[in-house]
Amino acid sequence: MIYRERKERLLGPESLFEGERIFFEPGFVVYRYAMTTPVDLAGIHLPAGGYTYGFYWEDRPYNLYFWFDDQDRPLALYFNVSDGTRVGEEEVSWRDLVVDVLYPVDAGELGPPQVLDLQEGNDVLQQEGLQGYVAHAMEAILQEAPRLYRWALSFIAVIWSGDTGVENPKEAEGR
Q1: What are the chain's domains?
Q2: C-alpha angle 142/146/147, rounded to 5°?
Q3: pTM score, two decimals?
Q4: How many C-beta atoms surround the C-beta of residue 36 within 10 A?
Q5: Is the CA virtual torsion 70, 72, 74, 78 positive or negative?
Q6: Nearest to 101 by CA among 71, 144, 37
Q7: Could you read off the pLDDT of 94-139 as tens digits, one per residue?
């Protein structure tokens, strides 16, 4: 099923992306987006033909992208600090709060986090009164990333296996 991601930015224009909805339940969605052009970010190269799984929760201060190359090898976890996430059956919308956290994956292991755009967004975050929210989100990301990496790998393995009995990911995640 075609699924849309609508991204509102504190800095810059809104963006709309289309991909394939993989899993949906009220308040949570996973969708797959195929890369048509290469992306290079903080030393990670995501080639055209690569793809990302986007994980969106209405009740969390971030969303998560899991990047894969065109040979199905995991490249990175990429967290966006966000708010206002609304998950619908046909579209997810959210507001990008500038700050991102990138975890490279090397030989199947999660590498150290790289915090991106913190300085760039500092002024607007202060103006909007969002510095405390972003600090809370960063703490949650740094605490939860290793567990979410393992969970997302197992979730995606089930998808790849073609098993139609995908269990509720919130329950599998230990929530």
Answers
A1: 2-172 (2.40.380.10)
A2: 110
A3: 0.90
A4: 8
A5: positive
A6: 144
A7: 999 999 999 999 988 999 999 998 888 888 999 999 999 999 999 9
